[in-house]
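During the practical work, I selected for study one protein's amino acid sequence and its backbone structure tokens, as given directly below:
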Amino acid sequence: MENLNIRALFPSDDGNLQQRNHFIELVKQIVEGVDDLKDPEAVHLKGNKERGQHFYRELTASSRIPDSGSPQDQVNEELLKLLHGHPYHTKYFLTNILPMASTPGILGMLTAFMVNGNNLWDVYGPAGAEAEVRVVAMMSDLVGYKPSESGGYTTWGGQGAIFTGLRIAINKHDPSIKKAGVPHNLYAFCSEAAHYSLFKSMEATGLGTNNLIKVRTREDSSMDTQDLEAKMEHVILRGGVPVYIVATTATTDAMGIDNIEEIAAAAETLTAKYGMRKPHIHADSALGGFFAFFNDYDFEGNPLQIGEETLTALAAIRERMRHLRLADSLCFDFQKLGQTPYSTSLFLVKQASDLKLVDLEPDETPYVGHRGYGDYHTSYTLECSRMGSSISILSALLAFGAEGYRKLLAQFVDVNIAFRKRLAAEVPEAVIVNAGNPGIITLFRLYTDRKNGYAAEYEGIRTKAEIERENKLNEMLFEILGRDRDKMFFGDTKKHLYVPTADRAGDVALYASKLFVISPYTQTSDVHAIVDFLKLKITETYAAYERLATKEKEHEKILV
């Protein structure tokens, strides 16, 4: 680009009309370009991109910084090419927890980008600091914390929240650990269905994953608190110290919701028995916490006129979510059900004073904070540079309001209920294995032996080989659905529940396919098309499995 004017690559410093219009035109080019790629009957943006075996290696070989820059409208064309074949959140986007960023969320993020403040210190990022304080107070009030006593900040995801909770838990046990290092007799606990974030955090803090104790889950994927108590006591009697319990509310596979009230009671009873400090309880509410919007909903008056079945489901979820206030800390991944862009997560602590346990000394931050000017310095965050993602969160909260979130969540539950009904009626070979969990997720599993199916597996009367045979069938369905994910995009999991085996060969995980209602464009009227598509893929799966079984039998005959 000859005679490049460097200042033309930035927004103006004076708000002049010429630079503003140029910027708006470039944004318009991106927005229109994305719109041109949309297809409401598919789940990928238009455009073919063959990401074969050598795709990324070839990119590495060919990608170098150009000597001269290109005009931004040409760069925009390159950016739009990146989006060819990219997943997009149409009515048939039914996988995991990858939501559509809402317009309020996008505009909030754009606002943050326009000033590009560092949310570490209000002198550098006053907009982010103001939004963060407001968001922390709003969400604290929602879950039943006292906003005047609670604290929190935006972080890099549910992982960041779990990690900070663990850091706090360790330092609650002994504040000198921050300087002296972590002893090896501290233990953390979570359910078998918990997210792997805690596994990573145990490694990162130096406690080690051997000190992470997995607690058995019930059929609804919630933590078995009797097993929790037994395993905590086992640790204590061997000289260990339980310092951290992660209660999952809700799991990303089956939407199992741990009962925080039971967990807190069990922990308090046991630690009182041995004269120990109660462990720090963190509610991993990254996904399910948003159902707290129904904690104060008038279920009797039902002002939103939510359908009876959906209302019953929401009431059951609220029964667990109303105990969020008992957790010492929790989190909200707004990039999930908060409908904001990645990454916009919020970590909350019941007592803001807990953050001091992981704070730095003033002389350790010599060039930010602790001055006579500035009143908000977040030296307790692991990040030294923090984006103002709180602005995006605030934008969404103000635009949706409690009513907007309730309507959206109720719609998701509506669709899930309709899907379960139609699946059970038309595809009986697809057994719903999380039927006891209301919400927005359905897990279903295929069987070669339908008489000895899920119930037999859960009761432990099937052998390891038999369960692995069923897992193989379901893995074939994963592959077929994955191959055709450009039409409908389903999720799956290789760890629904761990079940015992009849031959005592150890517990085995059950594989299951997953429908995750996450797009605002998925309606109950779309369910018939979704189930019809599944019927075809399931028929194809059984046929492929039979062909494979026949080949294996023929191979065995040859060997004999």
Q: What stands out?
A: The chain is about 40% helix and 10% strand. The radius of gyration is 26 Å.
